[in-house]
Amino acid sequence: MPYFRVIMHGKGKLFFGFNSDGSPYAVSGFFTTCIIQSFSVDRAKDYAMLRIEKRWKSSEYFGTISGNLVLDIEETEQISAFRYYRAKVVNFLKLGGLIPTIPNAGHSFY
Fold first, then answer.
1. Helix, strand, coil percent values for the chain (each to nearest 5)
2. Which residues in 60-82 are b (16+ Cβ under 10 Å) and which e?
3. Within 10 Å of residue 20's Cβ, how many Cβ atoms?
4. What mean pLDDT do residues 13-31 have?
5. Quick one: how far is CA 12 from the chain centroid?
6. What are the pLDDT digits (tens) for 84-108?
7. What is the pTM of this model?
8. 19 pLDDT exceeds 60?
9. Half-sphere exposure for 46 (CA within 13 Å, toward CB)
10. DSSP strand E in the chain: where?
């Protein structure tokens, strides 16, 4: 079964708290990457959307969203199993080998 790299863009008024001067620290969106193993690119896109929605709804930040969280697929590409496992090992070593991780599981906020 092939692997796909899905780059997603999330938009909405996302508030995470307050700066030291008392002003709200606002984030209006993010980019994230999911690595999905799927039979087709369409199923990979659907699963990536569900994964990110579930991650956000279960996070502590979900209650701070003002308005709807809108997710869009920016880019999708099929990748090799070697590229997937290489990323997994690199992330594992970055954390001192203590925690197995999913490649590219972070977010870049703006």
1. 30, 45, 25
2. eeeeebeeebebebeebeebeee
3. 6
4. 75
5. 15
6. 777 666 655 555 555 545 555 567 7
7. 0.72
8. yes
9. 6
10. 3-18, 24-37, 65-79, 107-109
